[in-house]
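Hey, does this match?
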Amino acid sequence: MDRLGPERSDRLAVYGGAAESHRRKEPHYYVGFIGVNPSAQGKGYARLLLDEAHHMSDADASSTGIGLDTNTPKNVEIYEHFGYKVIASSEVGPVPLWSKFRAK
């Protein structure tokens, strides 16, 4: 966090707190960060990553599904394609936050 500087560290902490407040209380998997290099987008890499997370959650009897967050409007629709639904949204300063969940 020291590399970010105090202002960015504070914003990241506020964002993380907002995301945490949206999370379901039941046992579930959570995808913290996912990203695909822009030059590789549209080639199915996100599907491979999410499919692996889905398999892990599905194999775990205690898991109720998978949660994730995004602050990118176009990703809201992309994640819906993979079965995620918005469970909460808010704004952290000027940054939108959508929390999504995909039930088993």
Notes: The helical segments are 6-22, 45-59, 73-81. The longest strand covers residues 95-103. Residues 6-103 form a domain with the Aminopeptidase fold (CATH 3.40.630.30). The mean pLDDT is 91.
